[in-house]
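Whiteboard transcription, Tuesday session. T.W. wrote the structure tokens on the left side:
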């Protein structure tokens, strides 16, 4: 039989209420009593019943995380940051990926109802109307790199538009600069494309925008790279909307004998860990991926702790945190510097 809170109280010769106060961290318990009860718990190998504690506190001590995918270094870094902040706060994570469309997002949200104290959401399938229609009332939510909130929900993001502009500015001396997009409907991909187009028009007058379709996977980058290698006329530089696609391009070009950066300069976005280890090392935009996840978790904890939650599709006092990105210049874009040149990216107006 499992050891119960009553067994602990009896063995420690204290009331059940005293044991409960120790479990819930109440300051009214003396240090001596707390140490005694904890020692008895350890001796009896008592494990608190999470469900019972949830009934008494109305909290599950669990946070839901909805991400577009769980594969790849970007999402690994994101989860690492969220998990680090969660563990430091004594919280657990319930993670789901959203490979499908809006119906799958609805199913995931409904599956987490009653099981989590709040939600972190990064999904291309949600907008403000979707959230208002499908979120359980009074469930705190924080959005990650999403345009869905429109100020109605707290969010943590980077300025993708300004970051893309900065990379085009770095590549501007090549003049002929192509761009590989991310998935259709993805907010980050749209903002990076928008920054590319605006910067190219402003900084390289007369240059033609050349856009190739991608989906954030290495395979889509490989397809573009293979097509470029076979083309008689190719751009002088390629800017991919994320590092995985840029690495795919690099693999295909090198397999075909096309030199990077001598024949085609190359840049990505995100600065995933592997970006610095490919040869030549990849120029990119450094996104504080793990920090973004940790900040979103801290923002959600603040909402849970203060009782600020979504009511009829809005959060009173919603906060939009925008973290700084950095331009990281490495050998793939033509620099001869061994150490990467980095710089904070100033934010641009539309």
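and on the right, the sequence the group agreed on:
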């Amino acid at each position: 039989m499992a050891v119960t809170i009553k067994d602990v109280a009896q063995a420690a010769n204290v009331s059940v209420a005293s044991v409960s106060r120790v479990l819930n961290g109440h300051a009214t318990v003396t240090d001596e009593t707390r140490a005694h009860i904890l020692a008895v718990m350890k001796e009896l190998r008592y494990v608190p019943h999470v469900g019972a504690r949830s009934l008494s506190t109305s909290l599950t001590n669990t946070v839901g995380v909805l991400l577009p995918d769980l594969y790849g270094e970007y999402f690994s870094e994101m989860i690492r940051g969220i998990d680090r902040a969660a563990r430091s706060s004594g919280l657990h994570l319930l993670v789901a990926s959203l490979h499908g469309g809006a119906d799958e997002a609805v199913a995931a949200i409904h599956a987490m109802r009653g099981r989590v104290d709040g939600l972190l959401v990064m999904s291309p399938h949600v907008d403000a109307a979707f959230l208002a229609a499908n979120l359980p009332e009074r469930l705190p939510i924080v959005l990650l790199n999403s345009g869905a909130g429109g100020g109605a929900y707290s969010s943590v993001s980077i300025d993708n538009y300004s970051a893309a502009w900065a990379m085009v500015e770095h590549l501007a001396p090549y003049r002929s600069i192509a761009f590989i997009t991310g998935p259709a409907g993805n907010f980050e991909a749209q903002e990076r494309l928008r920054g590319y187009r605006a910067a190219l028009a402003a900084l390289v007058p007369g240059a033609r925008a050349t856009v190739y379709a991608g989906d954030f996977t290495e395979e889509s980058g490989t397809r573009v790279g293979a097509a470029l290698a076979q083309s008689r006329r190719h751009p002088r530089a390629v800017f991919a909307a994320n590092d995985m696609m840029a690495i795919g391009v690099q693999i295909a070009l090198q397999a075909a004998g096309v030199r990077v950066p001598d024949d085609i300069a190359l840049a990505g976005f995100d600065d995933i860990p592997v970006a610095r280890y490919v040869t030549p090392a990849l120029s990119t935009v450094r996104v504080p991926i793990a920090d973004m996840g940790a900040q979103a978790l801290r923002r959600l904890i603040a909402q849970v702790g203060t009782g600020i939650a979504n009511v009829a599709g809005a959060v009173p006092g919603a906060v939009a945190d925008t973290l700084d990105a950095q331009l990281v210049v490495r050998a793939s874009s033509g620099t001869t510097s061994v150490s990467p040149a980095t710089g904070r990216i100033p934010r641009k107006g539309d």
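Someone added at the bottom: Residues 160-288+326-344 form a domain with the Rossmann fold fold (CATH 3.40.50.2300).
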